[in-house]
Write a structure and sequence with these properties.
Strand order of the largest sheet: 3-2-1-4-8-6-9-7
Order of helices and strands: EHEHEHEEHEEEHHHHEEHH
Number of strands: 10
Shape: globular
Number of domains: 2
Number of helices: 10
Radius of gyration: 18 Å
Largest sheet: 8 strands, mixed
Distance between the termini: 38 Å
């Protein structure tokens, strides 16, 4: 069984929820913490679809504590995810986080569990990611590397890191701090799209929670562990998605590989700038 709690974020897509739930069931976490937003008043079909997605959680048939953090009304992506994750990390020292459209390879859970243990007290490392948009990166010589970017399509972290999260990005108003964040990324090509996304988020132009998490990590010079082989598939490129409605062949068709064991842990913690450049270019296509 998986000792690390799994946080599962669902909404109104029972077909995707079913697929990802099956992958979680195979890992058999001892704790399953489910965050669900409520139906939107302007979408009559939401009530039934949200109920169908939540019903899937009732199929847990292994020895597992299930915590249901269900919103009665719709809070929106930004507030629902932010409040849910904050409550989860208040409760647990570490957690694996999976959304309803992120289908992980079975080996991702063991990889996350190992990384969360090995880097538990290393303040330089703030997140472990399962998604590698390049498919593979130097996989012949290593099993993972460090990035200033990192993706939330399947990720894990610690309470010690999440405590820096601010859904309102209050510190973005400080011009000097914005300059320091730019310096953290080490290359204008990497920094410019990130700063632009932070600015849109800070202005409230996008209903999201994840750029705030990226900003929080950057403010602390925090690094992400990224697997050298991509470990997830994103199933959510379709019309009912919140942020991935437009098909992107490089992202939506990228297959999930698997992690090899035993893991060989690094004797250093330093970002791979070339990976971050390639990551930035790939995510822009």
């Amino acid at each position: 069984m998986l000792s690390t709690p799994v946080v599962f974020m669902i909404f109104n897509r029972p077909d995707l929820t079913e697929q990802v739930f099956q992958s979680i069931a195979e890992a058999k976490p001892r704790v399953l913490y489910v965050i669900a937003d409520g139906p939107r008043a302007s979408h009559p079909a939401d009530e039934a679809r949200c109920a169908a997605a939540r019903a899937i959680i009732e199929r847990v048939n292994w020895n597992c504590e299930v915590v249901r953090d269900y919103a009665a009304t719709n809070l929106g992506c930004k507030q629902r995810v932010a409040s849910g994750l904050t409550a989860a990390f208040d409760r647990y020292e570490r957690a694996i986080v999976i959304e309803d459209d992120v289908l992980p390879d079975a080996t991702m859970f063991e990889f996350f569990d190992a990384m969360l243990g090995y880097y538990a007290d290393d303040q330089r490392v703030m997140m472990v990611s399962g998604f590698n948009p390049l498919g593979q990166w130097k996989a012949a010589r290593q099993q993972y590397h460090f990035s200033c970017c990192g993706s939330i399509w399947g990720w894990a972290s610690w309470r010690r890191a999440w405590r820096f999260y601010d859904v309102n990005m209050s510190l973005f108003s400080d011009a000097e701090l914005r300059d320091r964040v730019t310096d953290v990324f080490g290359d204008p090509e990497i920094a410019a799209p990130r700063i632009a996304a932070y600015a849109r988020t800070h202005r409230g132009e996008v209903d999201t929670w994840d750029f705030q998490w990226s900003f929080a990590r950057a403010l602390q010079s925090g690094l992400s562990v990224v697997p050298s082989t991509n470990l997830v598939r994103n199933l959510g490129f379709r019309d009912d998605a919140t942020h991935t409605r437009k098909p992107r062949a490089l992202m939506s068709e990228l297959p999930a590989g698997e992690m090899t064991f035993p893991l060989r842990f690094h004797s250093y913690v330093a970002p791979d700038r070339e990976y971050d450049r390639q990551f930035t270019r790939r995510m822009a296509t």
